[in-house]
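Problem statement: downstream parser choked on a complex file, so we are re-checking the raw output for the magnesium ion run. The parser issue turned out to be on our end (a line-ending mismatch), but while we're here, posting the original submission so the record is complete.
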Amino acid sequence: MCVSCGCGGGHSHDHEHIDANKIIDVEKDILQQNNLLAERNRGYFDAKDILCLNLVSSPGSGKTSLLEKTLTDLKGSAPFAVIEGDQQTSNDADRIHATGTKVTQINTGKGCHLDAHMVYHAVQGMKPEQDAVLFIENVGNLVCPAMFDLGEKYRVVVMSVTEGDDKPLKYPDMFYTSHLCIINKTDLLPYVPFDIEKAKENARMVNPGIEILEVSSLTGEGMEQWYNWLKVKQQQAVAV
Ligand SMILES: Nc1nc2c(ncn2[C@@H]2O[C@H](COP(=O)(O)OP(=O)(O)OP(=O)(O)O)[C@@H](O)[C@H]2O)c(=O)[nH]1
Ligand SMILES: [Mg+2]
């Protein structure tokens, strides 16, 4: 249950007596504060020509695997840095550290998403270089992280072929607020009933402007398109 954005409250009888207006006020307040801090982060990233990407997905879609492969293949081509978000453990940060990349782990405890304040502190500690590509791996959750702007330039939603092609319709906020959708684990397509054209159609129904790439972080298939996407966005960040 998440205690920081109130998403776990739906089943509690304690909430029966709380004025609905008060809940809305508190939520508005939390999001407004978050948005202000997100703008502050964005200003910092812009000033240092840092390309900041927020990777979101349900648990296990392959965010860390995508990063491990990317950071290994693109090593030396740009100053990379990673902020890892998880409720508990440093597992993902350890995996990123093994690639030789600068990484900071944020443990959210009972929280189910990262917020701009956590990112602000992590960035202060790690001090990403000028022109860096900063990946933020959010907590695996297709719901709450959609509400929290971290100050990223682009939001990247990773979905995998084992999750079902209906996910964009069931979790529309996440797909609506994302710029790029990466469909991962395409190596498993022969073994699962996942209609990739349907998945793309569903993502575009929710967000007609969303870009879509198909990859396998395991075999490397399709990763070149992702690297090209990154290269273009990084050149744009540095040129501005
Ligand atoms: N077959 C296949 N397996 C993959 C691929 N990418 C990731 N996996 C596997 O999927 C599992 C989850 O991958 P992670 O990279 O840990 O996923 P994640 O999104 O970072 O997970 P959380 O951080 O817990 O949300 C691991 O067992 C990976 O080896 C892929 O492209 N193909
Ligand atoms: Mg991970």
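For whoever reads this later: The pocket of magnesium ion (ligand 2) is lined by residues 63-64, 92, 137 (CB under 6 Å).
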